[in-house]
Amino acid sequence: MQPIDAQGLLVTAERLATGAGRPGRPALHDLRRATSTAYYAVFHQIIRHGAFAAFPELEEDEVAFVARWYTHTGVLSAAKSVIKAADHRQPKREEVQRVALLRSARGAIPNPLLDLAERFIELQGQRHEADYSNDYDPVRYATLDHVASAEIAVKNSWSMWRAGSSNRPVRQELWDSYRRFLVLALLDSGGTKVR
Amino acid sequence: MTSLTTETPEFLQAVRSALVGQGTGDTEVLDVEVSQREDEAGEITWWLTLLLPRPAGNAWSAEVTGELKRSARRAFDTVAQDKGLALDSPTVVVVTTRDAPPSQIAAEEDLSPDAGAAREDNDTDEAPAGSADSIAADAARNGD
Q1: ipTM over 0.90
Q2: What is the mean pLDDT of chain A?
Q3: How many CA atoms are closer than 13 Å to the CA of A127, on its beta-carbon side?
């Protein structure tokens, strides 16, 4: 089994963004692929966690199968709800239940989850620019910010995942918020699929 | 994602007043560009590009730019709400610089339609097999 690994994707993204020490100006398509790969590192981490959260006993080949139930727009939709749940303004009536589902027992969104949602939404937008737009920003500093942002998002998601095996109430609450986000993302992706 | 609208000068001025000067050092906001774009779900979203100085080192701190983006988003959303221009989809905030040296900007590439083919077949002037040009050349050779 050779599962897709977020850390491996981040290494590739960084190599592309930095040019791996190659002298001269960066190659445009290296920067584009760096941004895209950085986004996919976060996406794959989330959908892998989502598969295990739904079915903890999964084998590796089954993880790949379940992870594909997640869609980019499904995760995006759940991430948007996290941001709305963290907002002090009253959510729209049709969003009240979703927002309530995401909030922890204390009625708040944990900072690592908000950070992950913000970075995911931004990276998905940047990935769209990198993969499809003629307006992609060809500045290496910006690309490096995408890669570094993805590294933080992956680290945050890993920390929230690990919180599930902690006995400390505050860590359990963090895991519970993350788990709710993963479930919502799966439902927003359309649930189970036959491929 | 394409820019969909041009905002009013008054709105842009209010946004600049709220955001320019936020941050410190190499993450101080020098200017801001505002557009509306369609996200992956087809929803229209505000897209803010914060223009920063070039980083002091090889890159900005992503922890610092993350905080900056969040505070910029909140400040922008307040302005948009005050002006009745708030959107349902969360605002996206990105950072870049207009102060990068050429060594940090990707070189422009040959964007002609057959640039890729030229790189692959740089030892011949013939058009790639199956291309419209090669079919036309074959037809000419065959007297068609």
Answers
A1: yes
A2: 93
A3: 22
Counting runs of H as helices and runs of E as strands, what totals does chain A give?
8, 0
B70 CA: distance to closest CA in chain A (Å) = 8
Q: Which domains are assigned to chain B?
A: 9-100 (3.30.70.1350), 111-144 (no CATH)
Report pTM: 0.87
Q: What is the pLDDT of residue B115?
A: 63
Tokens for B27? Answer: 């993450």
Q: How far is A25 from chain B (nearest CA, A)?
A: 5
Closest chain A residue by Cα to residue B60: A145
User: Looking at beta carbons, which residues of chain B come within 8 Å of A39?
Assistant: none
Q: Which long-range contacts (CB under 8 A, 24 or more apart) does B13-22 make?
A: B14/B79, B14/B82, B14/B83, B15/B48, B15/B76, B15/B79, B18/B75, B18/B76, B18/B78, B18/B79, B19/B48, B19/B50, B19/B72, B19/B75, B19/B76, B22/B68, B22/B71, B22/B72, B22/B75
